[in-house]
Amino acid sequence: MADQPTPHWQPIAQLPLIASLIDGALDDAEEQDATLQEAKPKPHVLDDDTVGRVVKVYTEQHEDLWLYEEQLRRWHAGTLTDAQRREVERLTGQLRRLRARIDAILALADELGRGTIEKVLAKSDLEMGLEFLLGHPLEWER
User: Fold this and answer.
1) Would you say residue 17 has pLDDT above 70?
2) Closest CA to 41 of 112, 110, 102
3) What is the predicted pLDDT for the residue at 51?
4) Fold classification of 12-134 (topology level)
5) What is the 3-state secondary structure (H, E, C) of 41-89?
6) 20 with 91: CB under 8 angstroms?
7) Where are the domains of the chain?
């Protein structure tokens, strides 16, 4: 964050815009999590590039959450109407849920990244046979 430009903090009039960004990000993260959950039993349907893009996008988003948190903190410390205060508090909760969802996505992407099609194709016939017989992936380093 040291070489990042100083943020331009928004006036409370921008509350609807910030709300739509936070709510939209949470909706997108929930959809991405559901998609990754579908791939969990069959990670070989994913490739390294796809998993890499998920990790890149959600790592960047995770690193930017502090901007929303600070914006909401600044608004909360200021003079607000009751409706504005309720919305800022709602968005603070949405942001907590978004952070947790992104953490879950990154953990799942890490797990899925160990079983992508490239990882499966790199295994020998012996490894594949042992994994089939044992009913789970082998846990040794290549």
Assistant:
1) yes
2) 112
3) 86
4) Methane Monooxygenase Hydroxylase; Chain G, domain 1 (1.20.58)
5) CCHHHCCHHHHHHHHHHHHHHHHHHHHHHHHHHHHHHCCCCHHHHHHHH
6) no
7) 12-134
